[in-house]
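Posting this for the archive.
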Amino acid sequence: MSKVLVKWNDFDENELIHEGFLILESEVWNTKKKILEKVNRKFEVCVGSDIYITYDYGVALLKRIRACELDDSEIEIIGKYFSNMYGVHTFLDDVADYE
């Protein structure tokens, strides 16, 4: 099964940048993406202790995400240095709750 590097970055209300990435199975990424495309209400992503970024709808979060497929050698190199996540990697944790 193919894997995808999902990178995210955004600014909080104090203009501090938050960023991170996840390596996900393509099927998992596609499911999360479809859920976000349907979200038509405000929701928050926790980026730290009592720090949240608010999105007006799911597509607003998707606009802050870049995804690209990885081959096995790229996964191996990333895993050597970072594991499968880095930085604020919780930006997709509660996607199922947004429905």
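The first helix runs from residue 26 to 38. The chain has one domain: 3-98.
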